[in-house]
Amino acid sequence: MKPKTFQPPRWAERLIERIAASHLREEILGDLYELFQKRNRRFGLPAAQLLYVLDIILLIHPRLWRRAPEMARPSLYPADSTTPNPIAMLSNYIKVAFRKLNRHKSYAAINTVSLSLGIACAVLIFSLVKYHLSFEDFHAGKDRIFRIYTELHGQKIRYNTGVPNPMGQAFRSEYSVAETVGRIAFLPKRVVSLTSNNRFEEDIAFADPEFFTIFNFPLIEGSATHALQGQNAALITEQLARKYFGNSDAIGQTLRIDDSLMVQVTGVLADLPANTDFRSQIFVPFGNLQRHSPWMVEKDWWMSVNKEMQCFVRLKPGISAAAVNLTVLPAISNTHYDKEASKYFRFKLQPLADVHFNMELRGKTDKKNLYTFAWIGFFLVLTACVNFVNLATAQAVARSREIGVRKALGSQRGALFWQFMTETAVIATGALMVAVALAYLAVPVVNQLFEIHLSVNPMKDSYLLAFLGTLLVVVICCSGAYPGLILARFQPVVALKGKLTQNSPGGFSLRKVLVVGQFAISQLLIIGTLVMANQLRYSQQANMGFEKNAIVIVPVPDNQKSKISSLKSELNRLPGLEKVTFFDTPPASEAIGSSNIQFDTRPEQEQFTIAIKATDDQYVPMFGISLLAGRNLNPSDTVREYLLNETAITALGLKTMHDAIGKTATINGWRGTVVGVVKDFHFRSLRTAIEPLCMTTRGEVYGSCGLKINLSGMSSTLARLETEWAKIYPSSIFTYRFMDEDVERLYKLDNMLLRLIQAFAAVAIFVGCLGLYGLVSFMATQKTKEIGVRKVLGANTYNVLWLFGKEFLQLLLIAFTLSAPLGYWFTNNWLRDFAYHIEPGPGIFLLAILITVLVAFFTVGFRSIKASLANPIKTLRSE
To answer: What residues does each domain of the chain span?
Structure first.
């Protein structure tokens, strides 16, 4: 029985017959008929007929209208032209590329994974660097905005972000170089409440109204010029308005700050952008600082500098910062200080763009770290490209016959080159998409690790989109150009006979160089990771000179002596608390003030500065600080007494510690008697050498309470402590931290840097393993016949493993000779930032090469064992 045939709609065919030119009619109808039959078999008759009609409609075009061939527009190309159609060629290249990748799935997967990991790291690093470089970049006239900071000149210069309280008024009224001057005092973690049961800790700032003229922080409610004019006015952020008032209007609402200051909301700021270092949520007029924290503006004198009391200026157009540093600021020092003090207190302008990066002035990020990340990102992408080259050249022998056939059929070298470049572009584009997805998934981890607000969205970030486009072009060129040239240079006769060897174009030497580079990069990162880990372990476990275990630090909400005395009495009666002390800063803290010193009857001040700690009489015994001479401080602070450390005695030029006992000293304007000498201890991080230090009682500035707790009942002791705390400070929030956490916090940035370097080192090692796999694959392909002969002659798996391994051992040693001196140089530069540091000994470098040897031999062994298990009969027969 003859099978039934289905026909397309007849009316549609007649339509084409009427409108199509005679020389095109048969070809169009034939193609449409074939397409109709295919669709009929696949989708059924109704769908095939519908699609046929749609095709007819789409073909209704002036090019197909009835006309004689001689009346048609002449073609730009002669009928016998051999010029290829670029679009058709590109389409063919892409089609062939996908076929090759589908045939060699492992090759495609390895290349995609290695490239995507390298590109993902580069995307994250680019986003991280761009994020930090964008800080404070949105302010109008940012090039004219500066912060005045203080230089304290002694034996060495110390830097303080703060200035004396009168500086702002003096700079504004005595000189006409500034367009605007604004003071601001930052007070973090103050208790803010609506009701007695609704309390939160917020960062507060006391600011002049001019502050919001200098900086572009837009208000969504209220006026920037008038919002801080009233004495009890307050500006809050939109986020805080939602937190406290929900959908209600925040304007006119009242907030209580630390139970000592009532303010009324007069303006609402738009939420502060992520790329600013100003993180305060509430801004109060600067004049309220005297009522809230009189100790910050004590006596309104020039001898006191607090790091939180800052002054920003916007210079007039045409006024240079260099001129102000040379004339105006020295004149202010000479006017408001005597001859000796003016040598000690000096002031400079810091550009706004430098605030985020200057670590000496409490910057958040060191630019050197950003440069390090950028180089790491470059090397990771380079390593991934090297992988691609190794794997591509390893596949060259397998593709030699294909290239030979194409050349024999007339394919040109350029066409072969662009064919391989297209294959590279397909893989690189796929890897780029995977990399963006990986970077997007990694952003929350990076944000949590660095406490930042990164985002990876090329559709909303034109800089990131441009970076991705540039990176894609660079990766395609670096990865595809060399293998493409090698494949295009194959001689067709040699390629068809399968006689390509290691001495063929693109031979083994360059691949060895590339793998040596990969090993060197991996070893360099491993050495850096090991040195950083050892240094941070040394820093955190070193003997700091004081006791830090089982000690709890509790912030004191205010400094009223009566309350501190009551709290101390109650705490001393609590079981489980062994010792109690009050102070301004714990033994290890970067937040410590300093001053000049005039000793005994010497007529002039000393040529060094001395750090100052305000402590009670229990500070030394509780923290286990050794008293070497004299006695401890008296409990009363009505008579000024000082404890000095060993370094201070040495700086004073005294022969023995006892020579200081009983002598007078004037420190920070207070004259007192030296009653004892304590052993040196590290009151800053190990980055800083131990400096001269004095300790004195001064109850009005105590801001913390230290408690030595019995570990056996810590949880119940802390619960009782909170109960007693609530009795003394019913309107405050009870918080505590452990002393060892304070020590760890000194190295917070270093720990974050270490974790990121560890992640990059792991990626570099993994990508390097993929590159090794590619090189071993090439060797296994080249040595197939040799391995077969060796096995026939009695070689075992170990012999085959050594056949491959000995060459890679040589490459590892060569890489180590490059990475070891570079690693030593880089790590020594980093260690110079620490006054007390480890010495990177041979053990670190031996461990680095041991790690790379183990990882490399695991990778080599996996592929070489697979080659050794092949049946020699089959390999020799095929060869």
So the answer is: 10-73, 142-355, 367-539+748-878, 558-731
